[in-house]
Every structure is written in C-alpha cells, then in structure tokens.
Amino acid sequence: MALARLLVFACAALLVGCSGEGDVRLTATNTPGQGVTFVAPAATPLPAPILNDGCPVTEANGSTPPGERPSTGHHGNGAIWTVLWPNGTVTFQPGGPGSQEEDGALSMKFAWWRAVEGRLEVTGRRLDGSAPPLRASIPEGYGNTGFQASGLIFPTPGCWEVTAKAGPGTLAFVTRVVSLY
Questions:
Q1: Does residue 31 sit within a domain?
Q2: pTM above 0.85, yes or no
Q3: By three-state DSSP, how is residue 50 classified?
Q4: What is the DSSP string of 111-154?
C-alpha cells in the first residue's frame, strides 16, 4: 500500500509539473500480478483556441488526501480527492496517455482517494454539446476507503462535468477533453 501511495503521488506530481522530456509511466500494485499503470503526460503548451473555448474548467484546490504528499494538482473536499490535469485539459494524442476505444470514445485512467466508506461511482455529462454520458470502469479489490483506480471513458471531446460519489461524499469538477487523433 505504501508503494502504491508513493507511485500515485509521483504520478500526481508529474501531472502538474512534467519537464517535457516525454511521458512517464508508473505502475502501482496492490496484489501480486495485478497492476495499475498511470501515465503522466509531458508538459506541452496547448494551442490558444483550446484554452479560450469558454469551458469553465475547475482549478485544482491543492487539497491533499490523507497520507499523501501535497501537490498543487490534488483536488478534493475532505471526503473524495482526485488529481486534475494541467490547464484543466485531458489531452489524447498518438503516443500519449490514454486510448481511443473502437467506438471513438476516449479512455483515461484517473486516481481517486476516499475518506468516506463506500463504493466509488463516477458519472459525467458534456456541457457544451450533446453526447452520451461518461462511462467509468472502476475495478474491484481496492476496499471501501482509500485509494481507488478508475478509467473514465469520454464518448466525445468537449467540456465535461465529472461527478464522483462514495457513501455520503460527492466531488465534482469540470474538465476539457481534447483529441488530437
């Protein structure tokens, strides 16, 4: 568990301050033979039109999950935390983190922490156009509190509101999803 937390912190730190030397892949394992790989993107300036599209992206509040090292990319409220992407933008590109599904949807791994007891549920909706709802892949085996890996599947690029729930806790944020495929 300590190794997983260390690796997740390293990923979070890289998400907010990569050197531009290329993507960094980190694997956290809770059980032998099972691992979760997080990919921190290299810092790449985004084109101005993407940043000025009117999407009210959430800025990370720096609230750090218990037991984790502080990071400006952390975002939480005392019940649930995650790591937000730089500039509020999740960018999908060839050779970069994430993947494109057969149906064209865009899938990216997200880390979560829960201080409240309960199974994590993540939903989402596109704010700037019509699209099917966000899908989430949330694997079993992480327990009812603490760290939880997930995969978020955005059906289309655009401006997305994401809401995570666990027990009585709720955390919502807005992120921009960009595809360079």
A1: no
A2: no
A3: helix
A4: EEEESS-S--EEEEEESSS--PPPEEE--S-S-SSEEEEEEEEE
